[in-house]
Design a protein that fits this description.
By secondary structure, the chain is of the alpha/beta class. The protein has helices at about 45-60, 65-80, 85-95, 100-120, 165-180, 190-205, 240-245, 250, 280-290, 310-325, 345-355, 420-425, 440-450, 495-500, 515-520; strands at about 5-10, 10, 15, 20-25, 35-40, 125-130, 135, 140-150, 155-160, 180-185, 210-215, 230-235, 255-260, 265-270, 300-310, 360-365, 385-390, 410-415, 430-440, 455-460, 480, 495, 505-510, 525.
Length: about 525
């Protein structure tokens, strides 16, 4: 290990632990300088899971929803108290601009507070009563009910590199409020921020023992020790998601797995929308944001841009001008709105992806390189200029619907024809997290919804009426579900109470109605 870098630690079984074996070096993506190291293994993960089940689980299940919600509020307040430090660390370790760092960290604390409020409303109850009483015989006394109770295991959260704060917070919010302890594993390349956030919680004694543990470094044999009462929630590549689902132990124990994976999200300009109108400008603005916010490293980012054939040239020109207004460079510099990619591996993957897309599309803006940068030393950092492509033949192009380039890259796809034909083109992405439709024609929006809704976890409708208040498709909100079918992983997170169901077991009760009423005294009807 270098004398100038820190070896990051895991917090397991109630204590800080350094791993063993080989180490991985973490770099500042703006300068390429080493900032920390992480040991790849050496942890007793079976013991950590047992600690969560035996120490954290009983503690949480004994609490009411309101008490669990208070824990979430305490987490949010602790992190907010160190907000400036965390924002600076996000810039240094993740290459985020100040705005992008806020998007991650404030999004995390905001989600925690949203679920804290849900817990407060649920009050003294400890589990859900799901639905009304069902009479099972001629006698009104013999009835059936359904309840949702916390699972008796541990929630294993494996997060992606792009949102080390928000991903940890949003998954933990649902699990802890539901009554399950958490073992969270941040992605190695950006885990410096996550480890510091864990330090804050430990130093300020925010959570009871066993409620939240953190593993930094390799997942090792973690999945070899999960049981049928545990839950695994993963965000990342479809390949890794498949690997988790196909783990022998996961299959053998029928472990509940939730995956949020690749997504070729799309945006559609309706045929009714004309240049320089509010809806037109809204789409230009939101596509630009999605391409450049966090350097395009968002699971919800727009990758495919569908534009009527007779509007392509005008829309392309406006979008190019908008993208050109984004200053790229050192994320700590005032006025810079896009920084580097998170790692050298990420830069390599993005540049290879651009080359693949160029087999069927042409670059109409940007370049396969760094572009012009502000206050960045020559040759330093993992920078990629924003790239806009356009398909040569929308009907035969395949790669644009298959290859997600996880960076500041999007492709214009001209379309012709009616709604069914357009829907078929959109659905070639085989499942997405979010699709956006920009139109003031309610008939068009309604018809398109019925075609594409089964293929998407969320639909974002942009129109003149919401142009001033739209948050864009990239804003994942705690009250709406996050996830999608098909290649997007077939998972579902957040969505208020819906997100808690992942960590609870629905059970049918049948028996004497007064007895069931007493049994369900600590529940709340939902």
């Amino acid at each position: 290990m270098s004398n100038t870098t820190t070896l990051l630690r895991s917090h397991l079984c109630g204590d800080w632990q350094q791993g063993g074996g080989e180490t991985a070096t973490l770099f500042n993506p703006t300068t390429g300088e080493a900032v920390a190291e992480v040991a790849r293994g050496g942890q007793d993960l079976a013991a950590a899971l047992k600690y969560a089940r035996e120490i954290g689980g009983p503690t949480l299940r004994a609490m009411s929803f309101a008490e669990r919600g208070a824990l979430l509020a305490a987490m949010a307040n602790a992190w907010h108290g160190h907000r400036d430090e965390l924002l600076d660390l996000s810039t240094m370790s993740g290459g985020n601009t100040r705005g992008d760092a806020k998007f991650d960290i404030d999004g995390g604390t905001g989600t925690l507070m949203a679920y804290a409020k849900i817990g407060d409303k649920l009050g003294a109850a400890k589990f859900f009563i799901d639905g009304e009483s069902i009479r099972l015989s001629r006698s009104p006394r013999f009835v059936g009910r359904h309840v949702q109770t916390p699972r008796a295991g541990v929630a294993v959260h494996i997060n992606a590199f792009n949102f080390p704060a928000w991903a940890m917070a949003e998954k933990a919010a649902c699990a802890i409020l539901a009554g399950m302890p958490v073992l969270t594993k941040p992605a190695t390349s950006t885990c410096l921020l996550a480890e510091r956030m864990m330090q804050i919680l430990v130093d300020e004694n925010v959570l009871p023992d066993g409620v939240l543990q953190m593993l930094v470094g390799s997942a090792g044999d973690l999945l070899d020790h999960v049981t049928g009462q545990d839950v695994v929630a993963f965000t990342g590549s479809a390949w890794t998601g498949r690997t988790i689902r196909s783990s022998e132990n996961v299959i053998q124990n029928s472990v509940r797995v939730n995956v949020e994976a690749d997504s070729l999200n799309c945006a559609v300009l309706g045929p009714d929308v004309k240049p320089q109108k509010e809806t037109w400008d809204l789409m230009v603005r939101e596509v630009t944001t999605d391409m450049t916010q966090k350097a395009g490293q968002k699971c919800t980012a727009i990758r495919r841009i569908f534009v009527p054939g007779n509007r392509v040239e005008e829309f392309k020109q406006d979008l190019k001008e908008s993208i050109s207004s984004i200053r790229v460079g050192n994320p700590a510099t005032r006025g810079v709105r896009m920084g580097p990619l998170a790692s050298a591996a990420q830069l390599k993957d993005v540049q290879e992806g651009i080359a693949e897309l160029m087999q069927e599309s042409d670059i109409v803006h940007g370049e396969q390189g760094r572009g012009e940068l502000l206050e960045v030393e020559e040759g330093k950092g993992y920078f990629q200029a924003p790239v806009l492509l356009q398909t040569r033949d929308s009907q035969t192009a395949k790669l644009v619907h298959e290859r997600e380039v996880f960076g500041p890259v999007a492709t214009i796809i001209p379309y012709q024809g009616d709604v069914p034909a357009l829907g078929a083109l959109l659905n070639k992405g085989e499942g997405g997290l979010v699709a956006s439709v920009y139109s003031d024609d309610r008939k068009f929006a309604t018809e398109l919804m019925t075609v594409v809704a089964p293929f998407n976890g969320r639909l974002n409708f942009g129109s003149q009426k919401v142009a001033e208040m739209s948050m864009g498709p990239g804003a994942v909100l705690p009250m709406l579900v996050h996830g999608g079918p098909g290649r997007a992983g077939a998972g579902e997170e957040l969505g208020g109470l819906r997100g808690m169901s992942l960590y609870m077991q629905r059970t049918a009760l049948q028996g004497d109605e007064p007895m069931l009423a007493e049994i369900m005294a600590d529940g709340i009807e939902i």
